[in-house]
Amino acid sequence: MIRPVIACGRQNLYDASAERGSARKGLLVSSRILVAVSSPWASERLAAPVVDLANRLNASVVVTHVAHVQHEDEHESDAKQRGEESLKLLSEELRDLGIEAEGVMLFSDDVPKAILNTAKAKACTLIVIGAAENHVLKGLFKRILASDVPGAILRQSDVPVLILPTNWRGAI
């Protein structure tokens, strides 16, 4: 079974001050999760794990989509429509389940940079991205060293990054 992969960036995941006798000792200080979605299909597949994670961390969620033309014969309006549908699906499902969520449409040719800049601007303390099953099975860590979106985010992030296989259905 494929499990989620979490990699920490350059910041500590735990609140160091919590170790000095606070009642919050050992608790994650995460209060905002950025979830990057690439399609309506990805939004549907990531919904259950994101709901579970947001509930466990008592976190709000920023759902992002970077609209960019993926094929030569695709128009910008198609990319924008795909993004709007992706954001709406996940944001509405999260809100329906009582999780504070906002959707943010981004326009950029540099997808990793747009995601990372948004995470910083929105003060997110965790980034969640999906990875297609074949990406995970064909050597995610080889790809991290390459120039794909999940790899670029992992290499450049200052906050932890959780990569979920799109077939993940379990609790986190």
Assign the CATH topology. Answer: Rossmann fold
**CATH class division:** Alpha Beta
Taken as a percent bin, the fraction of beta residues is 15-25%
Q: What best-fitting shape do the alpha-carbon axes yield?
A: globular
Q: Helical percent range?
A: 40-55%
- CATH-level-2 architecture: 3-Layer(aba) Sandwich
Main sheet properties: 6 strands, mixed
Task: Give me the secondary-structure category.
Answer: alpha/beta
Distance between the termini: 14 Å
What oligomeric assembly is this protein in?
single chain
DSSP summary, beta strand count: 6
What is the mean pLDDT? 76
CATH superfamily: HUPs
How would you summarize the topology of this molecule?
Layout: E1 5-7, E2 32-36, H1 40-57, E3 60-67, H2 76-96, E4 101-107, H3 111-121, E5 126-131, H4 133-137, H5 140-145, H6 149-156, E6 161-165
Parallel strand pairs: 2-3, 2-5, 3-4, 5-6
Antiparallel strand pairs: 1-6
Helix pairs in contact: 1-2, 3-6
Key traits:
alpha/beta; 6 strands; six-stranded mixed beta sheet; 6 helices
Can you describe what's shown?
The chain has 172 residues and is of the alpha/beta class. The protein has one domain (5-16, 28-165): Rossmann fold. It contains 6 helices and 6 strands, in the order E-E-H-E-H-E-H-E-H-H-H-E. The chain has helices at residues 40-57, 76-96, 111-121, 133-137, 140-145, 149-156, and strands spanning 5-7, 32-36, 60-67, 101-107, 126-131, 161-165. Strand 2 (32-36), helix 1 and strand 3 (60-67) form a beta-alpha-beta unit. Helix 3 crosses helix 6. The two termini are 14 Å apart.
